[in-house]
Amino acid sequence: MTLLNKRQKSKLLLKKLTLPFLSFSQALLDKISINKLTLIGFTFVAMPLVMALLFSANKVSKLAKQSTSAIYHVAQLTQLNGKLVDTIAKIERSASQYLVLKDDELLTSFNRHHKTLNDIIEETLTSQQDPILIEQLSSLQIENKRIALLMLSDLTITLTLAQIQQEFKQLHLINHQLEKRSNLVVNEHVLAIHHTTEDISQHILARLYIIPVSLLIAGIFIILITNPLRRLTDKINLLEQGNFEQTINLHGPVEVIAIAEALENMRQRLHALELQKSSFIRHISHELKTPLAAIREGTELIYDKSVGPLNDDQQEICNIIRASVNRLQRLIEDLLDFNIVLDSTSLQRLEKISLPALLTDAFTVRKLDIKSKNLTIVCDNHACLLYSNSKQLSVILDNILSNAIKYSPIDGNITITYHTTNAHIIVKVIDQGPGIDPSLSEKVFDAFYQGKAPLNSQIKGSGLGLTIVKELLLRLNGSIKIIPAKEINTANKTGTCVILSLPNTPLDQ
To answer: CA dist 250 to 41, 228, 253, 379, Å?
Structure first.
């Protein structure tokens, strides 16, 4: 119990700490336009990427400079080794030949090669930075001067060829050490470039975390921008479905708030108009039904000859009156059904419905019409549950079934099937009537449109039935489509198939 209290206290404390921040964020967001929010989001997304790019460019630039410097030193050391080996060989050869031949030209050649070696060493010392190479070059220079002094002294008269070659051994040794050191320095430069390259690669790879960070920032700003628009779209969809009860009050960028305020004004006006329409239809329907009931009752008494026999002319007039009264009653019933379409509050009453039970009720209502034409109803009876508005769905099925009965031939069949998918419940009503011209498959949903009446129909429709069906399905997030029956079953040469699609998931209440 104590642990639970601690958790509750922690949650309350966290809520108190985050609430001011969320309130501040919401207040700040309400003052920013979508353009500014987009610009801020782009800046926050681009900034880390630009910083990473500048860092990488700086590192690559340093690597390029280091590589250039290393290549220059490697080339310089390579050329130096070749020059030193060649010049020392020439000096030794000139000195050996002079000792044997005692030719002054050979001594001059020796002096020239000696000076060349000295110049090479001097030039290298000025540009060289490795201390060991500098020391070895200095030793080589000293040894070169010592041999030169020896060759210019009187001791050359007594020196033998073997002795002079012995004097050059130290020069060769220093040159060999110099060559080894040069190779080592070259390897160090190559290794340094390799390490620098690996270091840059690691730094660049390490900064790849900037990509998910940038994507996260982009995602946050996308949510900040699209969430108000999505909520706005939801509100517009509610208005489209005729739901004028919910107040439209949104937070977000200033453009969204302005649109929400305009939609709220429109919602209030539409709601007021809807209430006026509903009130008018209810009132006029009630006022019409009262005298109509008296007219119908009187007509039936005359038709049944309760007040005396009728001649042929009187009987014909009575039939016309009776048919007109029935048609007027049908029009009033359609007006009442249409009033259900205008009644947005009824859409809120959603419940779990058994589709087979609803179909059975529809058949019961139309039992006399079905019997009068001796129609056979073929219907699925397997269990099927859905969340919907039973009152509106009953009106939909009654209108569809009424049309199927109206256009079916005597002794015909009406087939009703249904099945479920992941997202929808599909209901198909197939009759054997004359069918419908494909060019009129959409026009029949227009209010008060009346197609060609069937030959055996004595009552003319109001032209509101399919309009009511489509409007109610729109409010229930469903749809309707009319196609020739032969597209469903090639055995049917005529007939119409009405396909209803209803959502298979609970609707938002």
So the answer is: 22, 7, 10, 47
pLDDT tens string 4-26:
455 566 656 555 544 454 454 55
Burial group, residue 286, by CB count within 10 angstroms (0-12, 13-18, 19+): exposed
Q: Which of 315, 332, 348 finishes a domain?
A: 348
Q: Distance between CA atoms of 339 and 316, rounded to whole angstroms? A: 35
Query: Tell me: the pLDDT tens digits for 250-286?
Result: 777 777 788 888 888 888 888 787 777 767 766 676 6
Task: Tell me the backbone φ, ψ of residue 354, rounded to 5 degrees.
Answer: -95, 115
Q: How far apart are CA 460 and CA 446, in angstroms?
A: 17
Same domain, 368 and 390: yes
Beta bridge partners of 377: 414
Indicate if 279 and 423 belong to the same structural domain: no
- What's the domain range around 384? 351-503
Residue 2 lies in a domain: no
- CB 150: neighbour CB atoms within 10 A? 15
| Gap between the Cα atoms of 36 and 337, Å rounded | 50
**Count: domains in the chain:** 3
Place of tokens 């007039």: 317
19: buried, middle or exposed (CB in 10 Å: 19+, 13-18, 0-12)? exposed
